[in-house]
Write a structure and sequence with these properties.
about 30% helix, elongated, four-stranded antiparallel β-sheet, alpha+beta, about 25% strand
């Protein structure tokens, strides 16, 4: 079962805080910002009816699957194409996550069928 989703939002450089503020209002804890450079051409500008700035921020936010839709819609409202940040956002399903927990009470690494099989195969066999 998939418990997490990755939300990616591409905005004009300098507008990543707008994205994170919207995401945090809906329960996201934090994210990672990668500075990038867009490659859109004049046809893309005409299609979207906006001027496209080449310098971008990509905001990656890992969220529990049950809040993904709310976070995605909040980002679009605050930082979508019609905002100053001119952002687009989408989500990608995440198969496994290690190092974080959905709640502070759960373990940092939840065992999965895949990790349990790996742990069993790594244990040394006892000699008789």
């Amino acid at each position: 079962m998939n418990n997490f989703e990755m939300i990616l939002c591409i905005v004009d450089a300098g507008f990543s805080e707008l994205v994170m503020d919207a995401a945090k209002e809906e329960g996201a804890r934090g994210g990672t910002v990668i500075h990038a450079r867009g490659t859109a051409n004049k046809e893309a500008e005409q299609f979207f009816h906006i001027a496209i700035q080449p310098d971008k921020d990509i905001v990656m936010i890992l969220v529990p699957a049950d809040i993904k839709d709310n976070v995605l819609h909040a980002i679009y409202r605050n930082a979508g194409l019609k905002s100053e940040g001119k952002g687009i956002a989408f989500s990608i399903a995440v198969d496994e996550v290690v190092g974080i927990s959905a709640t502070s009470a759960s373990p940092a690494v939840a065992p999965t069928e895949k990790t349990e099989k790996k742990e069993k195969s790594e244990k040394p066999k006892e000699e008789k």
